[in-house]
Design goal:
Blueprint: E1 11-27, H1 30-39, H2 42-55, H3 66-73, H4 78-85, H5 95-112, E2 127-143, H6 146-155, H7 158-171, H8 178-185, H9 190-197, H10 206-222
Antiparallel strand pairs: 1-2
Helix pairs in contact: 1-5, 2-5, 3-4, 6-10, 8-9
């Protein structure tokens, strides 16, 4: 049974704290906005595509994109806003490729709408680029098998879930979430690893994501 199989290495849960810092960069027109998106560090791109998840963990699971919001609300470019909002972050495994997609969408729009690059934002509505700075800490929780893993999922904070699911895959470029990596590499349970990897975390609040993960693990234990 899966619950009796001991992992080669225990899964150690970590958590994170984060600070938001101003970069000192701001944009008031679309062409300037595009130039700065090309220039800012990855921590800024990450912040503006994940800010909602970090600050409103219990609310709507559909995270707004800061870039899409600004071009819609401050510049009045609704079509571009829709195109930016439709970028599916789940399809990207690193910040670099996500940035390239955002740049491509804006450049294609500006090519078809040349006057858009000169439109100024409304007064006091410039886009201020910020970045997320994370601090990672170990928790007292670890799991040596799938049953212990399920028990830990009940105890860890949502910040720990966020770290292992979102930051590990995209910001730390681990290709997949930490849970799936451990299940495949240490437990040898590829089926469950793939199932969790296919779960779209951007369509859940963090508490709902916890529940979904627990349900998947429990179903595996009972199978």
């Amino acid at each position: 049974m899966a619950e009796l199989y001991k992992a080669k290495e225990p899964f150690r849960f970590f958590t994170r704290l984060h600070l938001t810092e101003l970069t000192g960069l701001r944009a008031s027109i679309l062409s300037q906005f595009l130039s700065l998106i090309k220039e800012v560090g990855g921590a800024s791109i990450y912040h503006h595509t994940h800010r909602f998840l970090q600050q409103h963990q219990y609310l709507s699971p559909e995270p707004p994109n800061d870039f899409a919001y600004w071009v819609t609300e401050a510049l009045g470019e609704d079509e571009l806003g829709e195109k930016l909002a439709s970028i599916d972050t789940m399809h990207f495994s690193n910040i670099r490729s996500l940035r390239e997609k955002i740049i491509m969408v804006i450049e294609e729009y500006m090519e078809g709408n040349p006057l858009s690059k000169l439109k100024f934002s409304r007064k006091n509505e410039e886009f201020y680029f910020m970045k997320t700075v994370s601090f990672v800490f170990p928790t007292p929780y670890s799991a040596g098998d799938l049953k212990e893993f399920a028990e830990c999922l009940h105890k860890i904070t949502i910040e720990s879930i966020y770290y292992h699911v979102f930051e590990a895959r995209l910001r730390l470029e681990k290709k997949t979430n930490d849970f799936s990596r451990w299940m495949e590499d240490s437990l040898g349970d590829k089926a469950l690893a793939v199932k969790i990897a296919r779960l779209d975390p951007y369509t859940h609040t963090l508490e709902d994501l916890r529940k979904a993960l627990i349900a998947m693990v429990k179903a595996r234990l009972e199978s």
